[in-house]
Amino acid sequence: MANIKLEGDAFRSGNDVLELTKNQRDGSISESEGQASYNKTVRLRDARTGKLADFTTHFSFVVNALNASSYGDGIAFFIAPFEYELPDNSFGGSLGLFNAASNSNTSLNKIVAVEFDTHNNSWDPNDNHVGINVNSIVSVATVTWKSSIRNGSTANAWISYNSTTQNLSVFLTYADNPVFGGNSSLSYKVDLTNVLPEFVRVGFSAATGQYTELHTIHSWSFNSSLEVENQVKKKNKVGLGVGLGVGFGVLSCGLGLLWFIYWRKRGDGDQNEGLGDDLFMDDEFEKGTGPRRFTYRELTHATNNFDEGGKLGEGGFGGVYKGFLSESSTEIAVKRVSKGSKQGRKEYISEVKIISRLRHRNLVQLIGWCHAQGEFLLVYECMPNGSLDTHLFGGKIMLTWPVRDKIALGLASALLYLHEEWEQCVVHRDIKSSNIMLDANFNAKLGDFGLARLVDHELGSQTTVLAGTMGYLAPECVTTGRASKESDVYSFGVVCLEIACGRKPVDPREEQSKVRLVEWVWNLYGKGQILEAVDKGLSMQFDEQQMERLMVVGLWCCHPDPIIRPSIKQVINVLNSEAPLPELPSKFPVPMYSLLPVNMCIFSDTSLGHTGSTKDPTQCSCSSCSTYL
């Protein structure tokens, strides 16, 4: 609670909740105003790189009218400059956010808020509405709030911001056991870079006027993609991890900043656990930052000795197990590479050396690694909603159109980072729906970098080993074995069509004309009937223009000629309606293409396979090539 700043009439009540305005025990509760905010700065954007954070906040609250027939005025979640304070005389319809002076000169304001308004003022559409406010008490977007104010029911709200789409969305529910599936009750497109500074304050505000009610916050969490990166390098200390979690009442013990600090000495009885001929990996991996080395004992304890009951799935080179790190109260997923698998060992090395250096909100975070007892173990953040394919094909949860749209844009954002924004180009080589994980808010996170390769930005395709998964492989990869940014874009296009159509890229059960997803959708496109391929599970509840954009972009990405395919930057521009749709041939093109211009190094590889198979990894000695094989 020490990390919460209380202003005005806000106070902490005896039952460990926050009261934002006066309650009936205080006597008169009219013309009351109060704020409760986190008293440390929250980074909204990186001024150096210009990158804006994605964030999600979830809170439960009660607005209690005490059975009165007239009540007011409401509660709001706000983001403002850190120096922002509760304005004087901001009671009533101003909700504790503005006063007469700031309302009359909105150009001076820098604040974004989501209001849960309970009183119909002259600028409001009605009483009981949810509104998104930008620099003004007058909402830029509203929706009627079907509230349960009189009986004081508990509401749950999720507010999310996607910096790629610039979409601020709100989801509100009174369900007893609420589940957030990425849906929204209200949304508005706003570039927060133009409104708010780099560092901000986040919190709640509420007010009463002539009419009154009680405003109570019961729980709160806030998560942002811009994490503070602390790089602590000491000989016998592995790392310092920092996590921000805010919560109180029924969801946690107290309100404030939770510091998860873990110290780990080298060894701890592990000296004889490792593989003698793999000790070189320790030195290589420790050069990176972020992920840390775990002991084998830690991971067997975290996974209950790799209990089959906690198995999350089975990959090509081993199983994935759910685990729990008690020292940091963190859920993890542990990938256990099959013993004796040379290809698994190769992928393990590739994954640690590549993904440990990458930082992006749409990439699965590697937490740590371990090679001991003849095994290779990778530790990831746990993705509570599993992989995309389980929802599209497994009937786990029917994904709504807004969620599917968000997933496609999130995956595109991850590829833009890999292909163009990081210091080297990363070719993933295995983009598919089963490698796209979904976090608690159904944000897409690309994982499984075991086949990924580093390539200098000016170079083209850089491997002659067939790698990937059939159905997602670009035709030139099957013919030549060469992987490139263009072949990644092809795989992305297949996933776009999967998201839109809800079916796998190849389905032998379908009639002949529908077996191959890309060709089937392309033929419908040529007939002007592309929307007939849309997943029937959506029951026509989708934006037709946006859906058509996604499907046409998917076909564009899947053009047999890699030279005609778009860059991932072009993809994002079209999906965001910032560029027109391409004109594609009415018939599926014959797969005859020109080889990409390439400064090519040939490696000696002895076997091909479904996910690739090569000799032990080495780096090419060619001065122009930085590819790892």
From TrEMBL:
GO cellular component terms, A-Z: plasma membrane
Record keyword Manganese present: no
Keywords assigned by UniProt, alphabetized: ATP-binding, Cell membrane, Glycoprotein, Kinase, Lectin, Membrane, Nucleotide-binding, Plant defense, Receptor, Serine/threonine-protein kinase, Signal, Transferase, Transmembrane, Transmembrane helix
GO molecular function (one): carbohydrate binding
Membrane topology of the entry: Single-pass type I membrane protein
Residues that coordinate or bind ATP: K335
Function: Promotes hydrogen peroxide H(2)O(2) production and cell death.
Annotated protein name in UniProt: non-specific serine/threonine protein kinase
Domain Protein kinase: 306-584
Location in or out of the cell: Cell membrane
Superkingdom assignment: Eukaryota
Any one of the GO BP annotations: defense response to oomycetes
Family: In the C-terminal section; belongs to the protein kinase superfamily. Ser/Thr protein kinase family. In the N-terminal section; belongs to the leguminous lectin family.
Subunit structure: Interacts with ABCG40.
Record has Ligase as a keyword: no
Transmembrane spans: 238-262
InterPro entries for the chain: L-type_Lectin-RKs, Lectin_LegA_CS, Lectin_legB_Mn/Ca_BS, Legume_lectin_dom, Prot_kinase_dom, Protein_kinase_ATP_BS, Ser/Thr_kinase_AS
EC main group: transferase
EC number(s) recorded for this UniProt protein: 2.7.11.1
